[in-house]
Amino acid sequence: CETCSEGEAKYRCPRCMKYSCSLLCVKKHKLALSCNGVRDKTAFVSINEFTDLNLLSDYRFLEDVGRTADAAARHSTLHSPTTKKLLYCLRNKARRCNIDLRTLPIGFTKRRENSTTFNFMEKKFYWHLKLVFPHCHAEYTLKGVPDDKTLADILKPYIDPEESDPVVCQRLKIYTMSPRSDVQILMKIENRKQNSIRYNELDASRSLLDNLKGKIIIEYPTLFVVLKTLKNDMVVLGQDATDPAGNSDSESSSLSSVEEGEVRDSS
């Protein structure tokens, strides 16, 4: 057993291939690795390990994608003039705030998930937001986050030792035990080539709206919370000597990158 290292392994997780000896160890490994236990149908399989079962699995996967995409295309509400008008209004309001907000085609996961709205009475956005904590393999989705809320206040329920939920605090223990000066908030730059991924560092003391100004957002913002003292492969723009500070890459490369990452999950 790869969880307790004591019992004889009886089960193997279809997702991460970890061996477990009991239901308790299965639950522990899922919690520790944020594993859902569902086999990844899009996982890479080398040609030497490719079997007839893999071929059959890929065939069924493509059939499922085709059926789901067809069902989504037939959904009347997604093609209604009201829906298109709301999306146009959302992009227009974002443009006035110096935010390049882009929406994906119907059927993409991020298009379905996005719950971002604009309140005309208050004249502000309520964002759909995703927080990723890579050092703990954890991520959380927030809905209705006002654009005037600072990033520090957004993170308080997660990494503040006093204000965070006990369960969340335990899971993100490495963050809650670190000083606030060690916490770094990054956001991926979308208009870059796939082999040149870079991140913008955001200011925790400023509002979400201020941090998003001048940036390209695909559907909704995804913020990566990292610790400076721990090694990670996220290169911050302007801090890599081999990388120019400017964003000279074509904007079309960003959409192709996003769509290629989403295309297998389009449903």
UniProtKB/TrEMBL annotation:
Keyword terms: Isopeptide bond, Metal-binding, Phosphoprotein, Ribosome biogenesis, Ubl conjugation, Zinc, Zinc-finger
Single GO MF descriptor: zinc ion binding
Pfam families the UniProt entry points to: BCD1, zf-HIT
Compositional bias (Low complexity): 248-258
Cellular compartments per GO CC: nucleus; pre-snoRNP complex
Domain HIT-type span(s) in chain numbering: 1-35
Biological process according to GO: box C/D snoRNP assembly; maturation of LSU-rRNA from tricistronic rRNA transcript (SSU-rRNA, 5.8S rRNA, LSU-rRNA); snoRNA localization
InterPro entries associated with the record: BCD1 (IPR051639), BCD1_alpha/beta (IPR057721), Znf_HIT (IPR007529)
Disordered: annotated span: 240-267
PANTHER family: BOX C_D SNORNA PROTEIN 1, BOX C_D SNORNA PROTEIN 1-RELATED
Family note: Belongs to the BCD1 family.
Quaternary data: Interacts with FBL, SNU13, NOP58, NUFIP1, RUVBL1, RUVBL2 and TAF9. Interacts (via HIT-type zinc finger) with the RUVBL1/RUVBL2 complex in the presence of ADP.
Biological role stated in the UniProt entry: Required for box C/D snoRNAs accumulation involved in snoRNA processing, snoRNA transport to the nucleolus and ribosome biogenesis.
Protein name: Box C/D snoRNA protein 1
Species of the source: Rhynochetos jubatus (kagu)
Gene name of this polypeptide: Znhit6
